[in-house]
Amino acid sequence: MEQPWHLYVMSLVYIVAGINHFRNPKLYYKIIPPFFSNKKFINEMTGFLEILLGICLCISGFTNIAALSIIVLLVVIFPANIYMAIYKEARLGLPVWLLYLRLPLQFVLMIWAYYYIDFSQPLL
């Protein structure tokens, strides 16, 4: 079954974001809240999951579980987005208004992923 073009766009967004975790890890270390001790592991795991889930979105048998997993991943990384908006050292030089605007964007991404879950089919 051929997937809709916008699913491929979503897939590409996650794959590119995941690759960036490995290309520029120090950027992500700054936005991981300090109460997490192993920032390298968290960054690499997040990057790996984004790449894997981006690929799995395009595989018909895995689209459901990948979309659901992306929603879970977005929930899990949401504290980093809050931390980034609140603490100056995590802002990466971005304006505060943009960081607060970014928070609801996470929910838009969750809705986008939810769109691809077919509840009439098993998750796997």
Automatic annotation (TrEMBL):
UniProt entry keywords in alphabetical sequence: Membrane, Transmembrane, Transmembrane helix
Record has Membrane as a keyword: yes
Residues that span the membrane, as ranges: 6-22, 42-62, 68-87, 99-117
Name of the protein described by the UniProt record: DoxX family protein
Naturally occurring in which organism (per UniProt): Flavobacterium stagni
